[in-house]
Write a structure and sequence with these properties.
Layout: H1 5-17, E1 22-26, E2 31-35, H2 38-46, H3 52-64, E3 69-72, E4 77-80, E5 96-97, E6 102-108, E7 111-116, E8 121-126, E9 133-134, E10 139-143
Antiparallel strand pairs: 1-2, 3-10, 4-6, 4-9, 5-8, 6-7, 8-10
Length: 144
């Protein structure tokens, strides 16, 4: 089987253009899958230029992860702290929440997906800024 490098380059360009982590095409007897290292994307999205408070909380969260329960994003998308602009946030630092409470909304493909808390606790840290892109498995909040 001969590998067509042109197709692989084109798929790689689609990864960058559409901010994907993986793309796959298949033909009768050929299947090509191109993916990029998800770990490097998590670091990139954590350092998006949000000014002081959010950058501080993101960098501090690396130290506090060991001391709490992480609630992670179930999908890739854009995280929102409230159901609509100007509305009350789902969670705030220091707020007590129960298992199943909505902590954020992650929008993917124009669908608003409510992210429930995986356990009871007090919000110790909010690791994602409002409107910030998130990856699958990226920590959204940390509970005590």
């Amino acid at each position: 089987m001969k590998i067509d490098k042109k197709i692989i380059k084109e798929l790689n360009e689609y990864l960058e253009e559409f901010n994907l982590t993986e793309i796959e095409i298949s033909d009768k007897d050929t299947k090509i899958k191109v993916s990029k290292n998800v770990g490097s994307n998590i670091n990139k999205s954590s350092t998006i230029s949000y000014n002081s408070p959010i950058e501080k909380s993101v960098s501090d969260s690396n130290q506090s992860i060991k001391n709490g329960i992480e609630v992670t994003s179930p999908i890739i998308g854009t995280a929102y702290h409230a159901p609509e602009p100007g509305a009350k946030k789902f969670v705030e630092k220091g707020k007590k929440i129960k298992k199943g409470d909505t902590i954020m909304i992650v929008e993917a493909m124009k669908t608003m997906n409510h992210v429930p808390s995986s356990s009871d606790g007090v919000v110790k840290e909010i690791c994602i800024g409002d409107g910030q892109p998130v990856e699958f498995g990226q920590t959204l909040i940390i509970l005590e």
